[in-house]
Hints:
Its cofactor is Mg(2+). It contains seven helices and eight strands. The protein has helices spanning 19-31, 53-66, 80-88, 103-112, 137-155, 174-182, 210-219, and strands spanning 2-4, 36-40, 72-76, 93-96, 115-119, 162-165, 194-196, 224-226.
Amino acid sequence: GIVNITPDSFSGDGLFKKENKLSKLLDFAERNNISNLDIGCASSKPGYENVSTQEELNRLNYFLSNVNGNFSLSIDTSNPIVAELALKNNFKILNDINGFQDEELITKAIEYQCNVIIVHRHPESKHLHEKMNFRNNVKEVLEHLEQKVTQLIDKGINKQNIFIDPGLGFGKFEQDSVDLLMNIKDLVDEIPVVVGYSRKKFIQKTEMNNKEIFEHCINSGVAFVRLHLTN
């Protein structure tokens, strides 16, 4: 379940300083046996503005002060200082949409022996939403992810702690994201796959409803599907 502790998000569900709404969302997750929550404290929508480390920490502390229930938590951040605060507070997964380009972030993952989600980012992209061209989108994304997995293992991260995410909607044209989603089984092998398509524009091109896309992912062997919670 996706929980955005921001005043803004691409899906309009930011929960920063909205205690009642956050409480209802967490209650909804508990009632529906949604035990894994991915907490993001900085927006990654197109045209987003970077927030300061202190602001991202403030938002995470806000969540920590208001969380209830017995959840397994992941932190969606590229900031090693924010990651450390989360990991010190029993977060078990570090999810980096920038594909672990920051050496200090890798060091934190090794120090806390947490699980990591490597989100695909084209190695030549200058920023997160720069649209990159692919000759063979599925093959190249898989190759990029395999290279990153090897790099992280070489640096000291346990292979059993690694998940991969094709980064649908990040640095890709809509058709590339559609192709990756429709062929997601081609990414499924030894490393568990995480997929996040919820509320992204490109899913309209799949001509499938949310239930059909979810079932397609599960039937393809995807380990986790990241979804926005609806109460």
